Amino acid sequence: MENRTFYFAPLEGITDYIYRNTYHRLFEPMDAYFIPFLTPDKNGKLSRRQRRDVLPENNEGLHVIPQILTNKEEEFLNGARQLEELGYREVNLNLGCPSRCVVSKGRGAGFLGDVEKLKRFLDTIFSGTRMRISIKTRIGVEDPEEFGPLLEVFDLYPISELIIHPRTAKEFYTGTVHWEIYRFAREKSSLPLCYNGDLFTLEEYEAWDYAFPKSRAVMFGRGVLGDPLLLSRIRRTKGKTATWEDLQYELYVAYQKEIGNEQHVLSRLKEFWTYRALCRPEEREKIRQIYRTETLQEYAKRLHF
Ligand SMILES: Cc1cc2nc3c(=O)[nH]c(=O)nc-3n(C[C@H](O)[C@H](O)[C@H](O)COP(=O)(O)O)c2cc1C
């Protein structure tokens, strides 16, 4: 589809402002970048790290959309107010996080298990802010069949965009994504929809595009983390020539400046290789060697920096 919109998914602990800016400068830019979840307190206050991530001066030239993870109306609305003061016009609600400690507190994908409470929450937040509210959701807690009633609820609200990762919380990141549920949503819902999930290669993207040629938007997470050239291949653009190695070098320099502590920098850098392994299984042995490095010096030597 021409004019499709492409988003970078929020990945907490990974796609922070340093990563987003570096990706944006080196590779085919995304139309928007979702900021990993924020957890404002009841007054809307953010931690120092989270505030740094949303400050406009740390996101210059990028279209970024902040996300809030909560099941408490006041945290959402006061958090949204802080974001509005910073100049944001859209805030995203996280109904997708499958992590056990989040789900057990009825937040993220866990919120999908209490439809009545979710409705009250949506009533309050939609009448309490002028900001656009988009939602990123899974399709249920335990069973994909939960999505029908949930979609009926979503359709009652002026959600600016509903981003669907078609897995339940229980499925975590395993098994096949339920394209049939995304198709069902396309048939039933009048909301603007965006697809997200398991597009790691150009071939997988093309298969998805073939199945959903009219989908207006798609969000990439791990696929672009592991292969930052994926979007330029999809769009067939040739302008930028940076490589995966260039990205790793820039991150190596930037995180030393930002984080300082050598072991923290090293573990942050190694994490990118986890996603590389998903996209480049043939490089597993090389990646294993990189995981084994114990100092930044060793890491730099292995990567020929
Ligand atoms: C390490 C990690 C952190 C994530 N953090 C967030 C987050 O902050 N907010 C969110 O909505 N989803 C988060 N997700 C989910 C991703 O945004 C995305 O929905 C998921 O990876 C599926 O898309 P993909 O198959 O393209 O990666 C995270 C996923 C991972 C693996």
From TrEMBL:
MF terms (GO), sorted A to Z: flavin adenine dinucleotide binding; RNA binding; tRNA dihydrouridine synthase activity
EC number: 1.3.1.-
Annotated DUS-like FMN-binding domain residues: 8-239
Active site: C97
Enzyme class at the top of the EC tree: oxidoreductase
Gene3D superfamilies reported for this sequence: Aldolase class I (3.20.20.70)
Any single Pfam family the record assigns to this protein: Dus
Family annotation (InterPro entries): Aldolase_TIM, DUS-like_FMN-bd, DUS_fam, tRNA_hU_synthase_CS
Binding site for FMN: Q67, K136, H165, G221, R222
Domain of life per record: Bacteria
Alphabetical keyword list: Flavoprotein, FMN, NADP, Nucleotide-binding, Oxidoreductase, tRNA processing
Requisite cofactors: FMN
SUPFAM superfamilies per record: FMN-linked oxidoreductases
PANTHER family: TRNA-DIHYDROURIDINE(47) SYNTHASE [NAD(P)(+)]-LIKE (PTHR45846:SF1)
Function: Catalyzes the synthesis of 5,6-dihydrouridine (D), a modified base found in the D-loop of most tRNAs, via the reduction of the C5-C6 double bond in target uridines.
Family designation: Belongs to the dus family.
Protein name: tRNA-dihydrouridine synthase
